[in-house]
Amino acid sequence: MSSLTVATAAEEPAPKLETQKLTDSIYLITGPGGNIALMPGTTTGTFMVDDQIAPMTPALKKAIAAVTPKPVRFIFNTHFHGDHTGGNVVFGGDGAVIVAHDNVRKRMSTKQFNKMFNHETPPSPEPALPVVTFADSLAFHLNGDDIEVTHVEPAHTDGDSIVLFKKANVLHMGDTFFATGYPFIDLSSGGSVDGIVKAADRGLAIAGPATKIIPGHGPVADKAKLKQYRDMVVTIRDRVGKLVAAGKSLADVQAAKPSAEFDAAWGSAFIKPSQFVETVYQDLSTKKR
Fold first, then answer.
1. How many Å apart are CA 37 and CA 29, to the nearest integer?
2. Structural domain of residue 145, as residue ranges?
3. Closest CA to 165 of 20, 21, 23, 18
4. Are 60 and 54 in contact (CB under 8 A)?
């Protein structure tokens, strides 16, 4: 490692977690991984949606302890990616019950390969795996609230779920919603652009004007922001779809810049405009529309 690399690494601040109180019963914890919804235990135990990347687990434990002395009783994983399930192995080993869609356990139990990033993920150890799985929907009745979980059609992955805290009026969309950028559609894990749209439609049908919407990444949003996101994805999907139907190549589609009007607002986050357009092209070119 060069001295420049060492100096740069030393200058970079260590990742931190931030805790924000959203309602009387729900906290948002943000950091380098996916957004977490935390419901402190009052009567029936602490409940958490997702649990960050693995290196943040000690910090996450401290963040939870600052809110409630009660241990995490349930963890719900919105999907299988490690930036949302990294803490599973520790919390599961501590006795938390991990719950997720059937496909989350299937993917975490086996080696996964992401073609877009040429990245292989090994199977997760047993304590990290969901011990309760479901196919379509389920509900938790905890701490005076009813938590409704809905599996959506393949969107970000084939195991995505959205989570509604009914009384708190908070909706966690997982990575079906990126509040500040183009969505990452993991085609290697069964994701689809049509599913992203349908997940947004489902969220819009559930949410009211005062619902606080937690995206997988980015700041808390409202229904209007989710609608903007949904309409952006639809517009780009439809433009790319017309070019695919006309027999255009990926190079032709990229040259047409179907995302141009949205790039300033949505194109500077994790997924860049060219990546998003390529993903939509790859998805649509394998399907008859």
1. 6
2. 12-234
3. 23
4. no
Mean pLDDT of 41-57: 94
Q: Is 86 exposed, middle or buried (0-12, 13-18, 19+ CB in 10 A)?
A: buried
Statement: residue 220 has pLDDT above 70? yes
The pLDDT of 22-32, averaged and rounded, is 98
Q: To 5 degrees, how large is the angle CA 51–CA 52–CA 57?
A: 80
Residue position matching structure tokens 């060069």 = 2
> How does strand 145-151 pair with strand 161-165?
antiparallel
Whether residue 78 lies inside any domain: the answer is yes
Could you identify the residue written with the tokens 């489902």?
202
> Is position 258 within any domain?
no
The count of domains in the chain is 1
Average pLDDT along the chain: 94
Token pair, residue 49, equals: 């949606």
Query: What is the per-residue pLDDT for 6?
Result: 34
Q: Report the pLDDT value the prediction gives residue 117, as an integer from 0 to 100.
A: 86
Task: Establish if 113 belongs to a structural domain.
Answer: yes
How would residue 11 be classed by pLDDT, with cut points 50, 70 and 90? Answer: low
